[in-house]
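Quick one: structure for this chain?
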Amino acid sequence: GLIRAENLDHAIHIANATPYGLTSGIHTLDKREQKKWQHLIIAGNCYINRTITGAIVRRQPFGGCKNSSYGHGSKAGGPNYLTQFMHAKQIDIPKEKFPAGDFVNNLTRFLEKFDLSAEDLGFWYASVSSYAFFWQQFKRDKDRSKIVGEDNLFRYIPHKKLVLRLTPEDAPIDYLRAFAAALTTETRLEISWEKGEDEKVRHANWEAMLPIFNIIEENEASFAERVKGGKIRRIRMLHKPSEALKKAAAEGAAYIDHAPVLANGRIELLHYLREMSLSISYHRYGNLGLREGELRKPIL
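Got it. Here's what it folds into:
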């Protein structure tokens, strides 16, 4: 089937308007069009100037997004696939550190409003510096194959819509670190929360702390109704959900990503990012052009 588009922007809009996002491709020698397309297209495996089938383990880790993915979403053949089969536990604080960004530093100013112990504060600073360190690693495209004539880039992209559901049993140090992880990766959260007995938490100025997040106060029944109606597709929780919420998620085809908050950014940041494989054929009929002198893997 063919669909006529007025221009590249219209074509990208048509592709992104579909409910699925497994693979997508474009053929163009215009570098401006290549750059625009790869930053706007919403798909898991993306290809430029080559076929859009035949993904190879490690070279092009495979998996989609939107309705072409359900669950955690780490790609088969990628660096995070096995993390889906483990239950990570915090044993010690991470050693990797990097200065936190402005949004996280702004959040740090509100810590005094919560009753945090010295140990909590230690976990806070270890966590946010680890998140900053690993975000510096994650936001750089990686090409581990380096084959001649083709770039195969692995990229992390913040989720477009992610709901963080907070309950009265969640500890402030945990959801504050979840906020910091989302702020580090520039993931726009919707926060659904329910008031508990802690006066400091109940009267916290959430809008001042988190000006870029959408914050909704609601009980579990109201939240479950939204989930059941298909309004929410991806939920991050810090504790195991109730049976009623799991049933609502099953009926609304929503994925509940529940796991304790970790100080190690290598694992924690994955909750807020999706993976993209980008394969770009840069040769023309075997001619490598200006890139002929690059150090690549030998041709066998």
